[in-house]
Write a structure and sequence with these properties.
Structural class of chain A: mainly alpha
Number of strands of chain B: 0
Largest sheet of chain A: 2 strands, parallel
Strand content of chain B: under 5%
Radius of gyration of chain B: 18 Å
Oligomer: heterodimer
Radius of gyration of chain A: 19 Å
Shape of chain B: globular
Helix content of chain B: 40-55%
Order of helices and strands of chain B: HHH
Shape of chain A: globular
Order of helices and strands of chain A: HHHHHEEHHHHEEHH
Distance between the termini of chain B: 56 Å
CATH topology of the largest domain in chain A: Nitrile Hydratase, Chain A
Number of helices of chain B: 3
Chain lengths: 197, 85
């Protein structure tokens, strides 16, 4: 994104409202100094799909870890050091040759932040939220994820209580790769379930 | 196969990650909501989430972070004044 050069943009109404909120909440003692900068920094540089990729790669490489991950996603993900806000009840759903999983939040934008970071723009848009439930196969095809007709599609509606993460199928011919190399194969979209690897 | 891993040094797929925020006010209002959830509601996200659902439902085409702002305004309005310390 551009930084806007040296021409200060006029302050928009929403920017003014956010500034007012910041002043109000700071006055109430709810915003410790440096909190905003710290949260922003973490979400922009530390929390993102690379965390989920590590979880997936570990599951591919270590069958016992995979068992734990599918049995108790929250605990197994915490083993790798990921957790906290928006990830305190994680359920991992496994793609197989017969079943393809995809996640959505029909009501707002619930998303497994600790392992995927912030949701992409399309995830929050009404068409995705409505159509992934109504016509998942058609929408997946439009998004470039074409599934054989005999593959069952399971759509998981996230909520404040439960966040889902898709465990994609391990790509063929990756037997010789290290866990680190495997992680490099995992994409955000494959962990949402709108792509296959 | 449990090679010793140095996952922290990995060059992981940042191509997956879209830019999280398009403007500074968006990251600010995001962090403000996190602050309220953490410091006013003891980590309970449900009150904010209810406001966000309402804000999105009343105008689904409104830009996402504007709905987020409206939700946080509503939540702040509903909060009791903090005890004086």
């Amino acid at each position: 994104m551009s930084e806007g050069g040296h021409h200060p943009a006029p302050v928009s109404p929403v920017e003014r409202r956010v500034a007012a909120l910041e002043a109000l909440l700071t006055e109430r003692g709810l915003v410790p100094e440096g909190f905003i900068e710290e949260v922003t920094r973490r979400y922009e540089s530390e929390i993102g799909p690379m965390n989920g990729a590590k979880v997936v790669a570990r599951a591919w490489a270590d069958p016992e870890y995979k068992q734990r991950l599918l049995a108790d996603g929250t605990a197994a993900i915490a083993e790798l050091g990921f957790g906290g806000a928006e990830g305190d009840h994680m359920v991992v759903v496994e793609n197989t040759a017969a079943v393809h999983n995809v996640i959505v939040c029909t009501l707002c934008s619930c998303y497994p932040w600790p392992v995927l970071g912030l949701p992409p723009a399309w995830y929050k848009d009404p068409p995705y939220r409505a159509r992934m439930v109504r016509e998942p196969r058609t929408l997946l095809t439009e998004m470039g994820c074409r599934l054989p007709a005999d593959v069952e599609i399971r759509v998981w509606d996230s909520s404040a209580e439960v966040r889902y993460l898709v465990l994609p199928e391990r790509p063929p011919a990756t037997g010789g790769l290290t866990e680190a190399e495997l992680a490099g194969l995992v994409t955000r979209d494959s962990m949402i379930g709108v792509a296959r690897l | 196969m449990t090679e010793t891993l140095s996952l922290l040094e990995l060059d992981l797929p940042r191509r997956n990650g879209e830019l999280a925020f398009d403007a500074p006010w968006q990251s600010t209002v995001f962090a403000l909501a996190a602050a309220v959830v953490e410091h006013a509601f003891g980590g309970d996200r449900e009150p904010f989430r209810r406001q966000l659902i309402k804000a999105i439902a009343e105008q689904p085409d409104r830009p996402y972070w504007e709905s987020w702002t409206i939700a946080l305004e509503a939540l702040a309005d509903s909060m009791p004044e903090p005890p004086m310390t």
